[in-house]
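Pipeline run #58 for the internal structure catalog. This entry was flagged by the ingest filter as a single-chain record with no existing model, so it goes straight to prediction. Upstream metadata was stripped on purpose; only the residue string is passed forward. Reviewer on rotation: M.T. Logging verbosity set to normal.
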Amino acid sequence: MKVKVKFFAILRERAGTAEFTKEIKQGSTVADLWAALQQDYPKLAVPGIRLLYAVNRDYVTPDRLLEDCDEVVFIPPVSGG
């Protein structure tokens, strides 16, 4: 199955892309997808990074099961004032 992946801010810079389609196995979770993306884009493998995850515009936990054609957004920590 395929999902649409979107990166924002520093994640977009590290991956060198803002969005793309990724083929994943049936039964994959958001955490499984993140692990696969770190293999595809090693610069994303930042120890201890805390992300927010959204699937189809709803915030979700990493154990959320993905379905064909889902849109998955990875949101890095935001700081500033």
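catalog note: The first helix runs from residue 9 to 15.
catalog note: The mean pLDDT is 94.
status: ready for reviewer M.T.
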